[in-house]
Amino acid sequence: MRVHAKRAGVLLGGLMAPALSMADWTLNMSPGVTGTSNEIFSLHMTILWICVVIGVVVFGVMFWSIFAHRKSSGRKPANFHENTLVEILWTIIPLVILVVMAIPATATLVDMYDTSEAEVDIKVTGYQWRWKYDYIDEEFGYFSTMSTSRDEIYNRTKKTENYLLDVDNPMVVPVGAKVRLLLTANDVIHSWWVPAFGVKKDAIPGFINETWTRVDEPGIYRGQCTELCGKDHGFMPVVVKAVPQEEYDTWVAEQKEAAQRERELTEKDWTMDELMERGEKAYASACASCHQADGSGSPPAFPALKGSQIALEDMDAHLDVVVNGVSGTAMQAFGDQLNEVDLAAVITYERNAWGNDTGEMITPKEVFEYKNQE
Amino acid sequence: MYLIFSFTMFLLGGAMAMVIRAELFQPGLQIVEPEFFNQMTTMHGLIMVFGAVMPAFVGLANWMIPLMVGAPDMALPRMNNWSFWLLPCAFLILVSTLFMQGGAPNFGWTFYAPLSTTYGPPSTTFFIFAVHIMGVSSIMGAINVIATILNMRAPGMTLMKMPLFVWTWLITAFLLIAVMPVLAGVVTMMLMDINFGTSFFDASGGGDPVLFQHVFWFFGHPEVYIMILPAFGAVSHIIPAFSRKPLFGYASMVYAVGAIALLSFVVWAHHMFTVGIPIAGQLFFMYATMLIAVPTGVKVFNWVATMFRGSLTFEAPMLFAVAFVILFTIGGFSGLMLAIAPADFQYHDTYFVVAHFHYVLVPGAIFGIFASAYFWLPKWTGHMYDETLAKTHFWLSFVGMNLAFFPMHFLGLAGMPRRIPDYALQFADFNMVSSIGAFMFGATQILFLVIVVKCVRGGEKAAANPWDGAEGLEWTVPSPAPYHTFATPPEVK
């Protein structure tokens, strides 16, 4: 009997070990900060407890048989092998449990699909590998790229608290307002997820998906892309900052003004140094994830720019590739993603960095003309 | 031969899993780059599903179905031969992509378009060809199984007297024939998109990326049951044998398998709850998916009732079978949780899903295969295997497996997405535990090789029926079973 007890101990130990020894590690879903996420949390807990109860009953009978009905304790086997009543019962009972479970689930689902009467509309576009947030009613938008440095990822410096979960420009939403999100993607399928909101929706190229959220507490909420989207799938976090309405209004006004200033920059006369400086930044956020910070690329999917034909020879061809992309390859059309200033800066940078010393530059005005002649 | 091939693939796929877990041991990138990490997750999935689990079951079918139905051999030996030799070819092609320029497929075993078409590596075309060949092989294997079962049963063995392993394989074979062509269709559309300028899945050419997912999962969901139903069958022989008591509810077992197989065709979109299907579709797929819990529950209840008031002993096959029932049920519970569409929005594409399908596939399919192997090894080799070693194999696998996959539930609930090569710091502790468990589980499998080799080379002679309570035609012939066993069909009453 002692051997049996020991075996049982190992058996239970195997099941319980992760649960017992790490009581303070996160074990469960968090209820989150929106109505939806709270409803999901309560559904999750209900179904979890139903499973636990069924598990206890079924495994209880099983362990009872394992301990009490052993051959070594001299049991003679019974010979029953059918009982219609019992079989019908254990078909009907789970069915009833399922129906009971389906009712609240249906209600929550209907609520999650109700995107009507939203106060703020934000278009979320997935790119390889960053997000773009367009505030449709306010006519401005910006990219949100991970700000964790490569040094942290490759263990050359200490990892910060929000390792992999920090971005340069978070999405900003007002507290207490119903925010409608329109999701799409530019290249492959991405999925936008903030666990604390209970919102996850795929961003699919060519399609617009709708979902909504209403955040009740101010704060910074973090999530990640949850649909494999290529190399840097693990490096495109979602960060949302929920602020009180007045602060949101001020922020929107600032953004609108900044967007206006950006548009005016196109008219400005740029010098080579200014373009190079801006180009380095724009290159780092838009191009470096594929073509690498030193322009070496990762062939064959992502060719090198350092010493390449495109970057050294005909300017128009270079412009065409950057603005219109190359169809059938991973090279995207950046004409809609970057403004004229950034396009000019990036191209100038690519033609003059890493020993590509063409000395040539292109101005935002020229890019503007190129884009509008087509 | 199928079994040897499948074990080789199991070790190869396992080695890739070790690379994945080694990278995920600590936050930060240490061993591999994200590109290679994605290739590893993709190849691990493909090799385990198509290279390890499916051929293993075909191997079991080839060996055991003729013995069980009282036939001399499979109905179509030449086709069988061809179907086997296609497999090494397919996997040679698949594995060779690792050495090609641009690397192996890196878009996950579900190869969602357009990541796998417009944005895929050049080796994708080879991958498509490999999938085609595997599909042909599976379909031929399935035809052979059906032909054998329907035509070569011993006189007196009516359909409702067939052993359950035969029943589950019959249904599995029909599933294979129904869905493998769908897989072939979807990869052919990919081939067209990549090489011939069509745009089935490219929205800019009027195509639809979501169409890919619908077609893929129409294949993918029945595929899941293809990998588990034969294990259901095998376990339904092993539990009664070591309980020394007939299987409880034979007829309801058969109906349950049939119901699961039918339902598996109408639940595919539960893999796609977040793609934005209309609410009516969402509700339909949620209800249909929840329904699957009913026949699956019936099976679990039947197994437990079989054990109840039996006279139980716990040799290695029984240990694996009991662990199968317990752990598969846990996987079933998490499956039920995933079926609740609103909750799925939180679970979808997180480690919770990874935990769920590893709980279904590892203790489900893989433990089912181990249990069958130990159960029938004496019949195959004529020798008993080393019981002490086999029990060690079981306990190490059991502990390792739970240590590797149980923490993944917590990781998923805490918000860790799947298929990421690196993770935020709050996920670090459980990932380390999981990696340790995975290494333990992986290393343990070498022991299985030792046990099998030892058993083939010698050991205690096995009687015609080495197990007290085992029943069926296969135990009426000497061990090892003679070549062309039933030259004259036995009578079944």
Proportion of strand residues of chain A: 15-25%
- How many strands, what sense, and barrel or not for the largest sheet of chain A? 5 strands, mixed
Biggest interface, residues from each chain: A-B, 109 and 103 residues
Q: Helicity level of chain B, as a percent range? A: 55-70%
Query: Quick one: CATH class of the largest domain in chain B?
Result: Mainly Alpha
Count of structural domains of chain A = 3
Instruction: Tell me the CATH topology of the largest domain in chain B.
Output: Cytochrome C Oxidase, Chain A
Distance between the termini of chain B: 33 Å
Overall tally of structural domains of chain B: 2
How big a fraction of the residues of chain B is strand? under 5%
| Average predicted local confidence, pLDDT of chain B | 88
Give the helix proportion of chain A (percent range). Answer: 40-55%
Count of helix runs of chain B: 14
The coarse overall form of chain A would be elongated
Which CATH class of the largest domain in chain A? Mainly Beta
Can you offer a commentary on this structure?
The complex is a heterodimer of chains A (374) and B (493). Chain A has 374 residues and is of the alpha+beta class. Helix content of chain A is 44%, strand content 16%. Chain A has helices spanning 2-21, 35-68, 84-112, 150-153, 245-265, 272-286, 288-291, 309-312, 315-324, 340-352, 364-373; strands at residues 120-127, 130-135, 140-144, 171-174, 178-185, 190-194, 199-203, 209-214, 219-224, 237-243. In chain A, helix 2 packs antiparallel against helix 3, helix 6 (272-286) packs across helix 10 and helix 10 (340-352) crosses helix 11. The termini of chain A are far apart. Chain B has two domains: 53-222, no CATH class; 228-481, Cytochrome c oxidase-like, subunit I domain (Cytochrome C Oxidase, Chain A, Up-down Bundle), CATH 1.20.210. The longest helix of chain B is centred in the first third of the chain and has 36 residues, at 34-69. Chain B is globular. The chains are: A alpha+beta (374), B mainly alpha (493).
